[in-house]
Design brief:
This protein is α+β, with helices and mostly antiparallel strands. It folds into 2 domains: 226 residues, Rhopdopsin 7-helix transmembrane proteins, CATH 1.20.1070; 129 residues, Beta-Lactamase (2-Layer Sandwich), CATH 3.30.450.70. 59% of the residues lie in helices and 8% in strands. Strands 2-1-5-4-3 form a 5-stranded antiparallel beta sheet. α4 packs antiparallel against α5. The radius of gyration is 25 Å and the shape is elongated. The termini are far apart. The C terminus is likely disordered.
């Protein structure tokens, strides 16, 4: 029997690990009602790459008889899709829409790597083969850039709010990036030159196992606390529900001694009126200043507007604002023409913590 046990364990670990993590996120989504955009799909694709990795262990576990050269070239594009989905998830924690320059750059590297890989099938030997070197180098660069970018999200979060989980995830992702670069420099480049860094030692398999272990640390850290997926490096300064009359119907955030909810409500209403008078009929959905942004979600037919003041807008923040507006509408219905009192909207704090699970409760502030 010629099965490579190290490769087999690596592949089975990917299948089991990523399948369990996908299941955990699905269960957590059902339990909390919160979507984990892109990450769940990426983890599911990770399980599929585990099948390809398992088939690399030897002909006994390659029922389609594809051969290691072809399997390798199928697995790399799958990994590129996996890491792309993970990168989109972390981009959603950082901004409202992806940075398309980064997306275009990474797409170019990923496509070039995949094409080089299939082109190298004509002469798959790595020694002196530029196509093989471009294939492996492109994937290593792609992976390193993705994980360095992802690490910056959590290292940035740690600088704002020192939390052990943030520094653990951020540091682990830096180590994953370094492991991919080392794999290329010590493994692929050495193979191109026809040398071995450590003769007889399965260096690439060892680095694969290290990377898989680090990836599982990141995934388990995220899956063990669903709210952490949304505990993002963006400060939220206040949440308002403003009646169409311009009165503050509800406010969540600093105490009234720190802010005047009524003044803020009047100011936002005045901005909306000015914009409509100037011919803008779609309403205001963002008010941007140098340091803060107001995210606005209107429910004109129900007589209220939700406004949230944040450091900057991310996709998660935008989704949370819309979720809170929908929940407030379902709970209290139309408030048009009503005499507004702070006692009219019980349980609003509970709605806030469902829509914005990363916020601390008032009693903790």
């Amino acid at each position: 029997m010629t099965v490579n046990l190290g490769v087999l364990v690596n592949g089975l670990g990917l299948i089991v690990g990523f399948s369990l993590l996908t299941l955990i996120f699905i269960v957590q989504e059902k339990r909390t009602g919160r979507k984990v955009y892109f990450l769940k799909e990426g983890l599911f694709m990770g399980a599929l790459t585990g099948i390809a990795s398992t088939m690399l262990a030897g002909p006994e576990v390659d029922p389609l008889s594809l051969g290691p050269e072809l399997i390798d070239r199928i697995a790399i594009p799958l990994w590129i899709v996996v890491f792309s989905m993970v990168a989109l998830f972390f981009m959603s924690l950082r901004s409202e829409s992806p940075d398309w320059r980064v997306v275009a750059f990474l797409t170019g590297i990923g496509v070039a790597s995949s094409i080089s890989g299939f082109a190298s099938l004509a002469s798959p030997s790595p020694i002196g083969n530029l196509a093989v070197l471009a294939w492996n180098g492109g994937f290593a660069c792609f992976s390193a850039i993705v994980f360095f970018y992802n690490s910056s999200v959590f290292l940035g979060a740690y600088r704002r709010i020192p939390e052990r989980r943030s520094i653990v995830i951020g540091t682990t992702m830096v180590l994953i990036s370094i492991a991919y670069l080392l794999s290329f420099l010590l493994g692929d480049l050495s193979s191109y030159l026809g040398t071995e860094v450590i003769p007889g030692f399965p260096l690439e398999t060892a680095l694969d196992l290290i990377r898989v272990g680090l990836l599982l640390i990141v995934a388990l850290s995220l899956a063990s606390d669903m709210e952490y997926c949304y505990r993002i490096p963006v400060r939220l300064f206040g949440i308002w529900v403003i009646a169409s009359s311009g009165i503050s119907a509800y406010h969540y955030g600093p105490t009234e001694e720190d802010t005047d909810p009524g003044l803020f409500a009047s100011a936002l209403t005045a901005i909306s009126i000015v914009m409509k008078e100037s011919g803008v009929h779609r309403g205001v959905n963002r008010v941007v200043t140098g340091e803060r942004t107001v995210v606005v979600e209107e429910r004109v037919e129900l007589g209220f507007t939700v406004a949230v003041v944040v450091e900057r807008v991310t996709m998660v923040i935008a989704k949370s604002v819309k979720t809170f507006a929908d929940m407030f509408a379902d709970r209290f219905g139309s408030i048009a023409g009503r005499n507004i009192s702070s006692d009219d909207f019980p349980d609003s704090d509970m709605l806030v913590h469902v829509a914005f699970p990363f916020l601390r409760k008032r009693s903790d502030q």
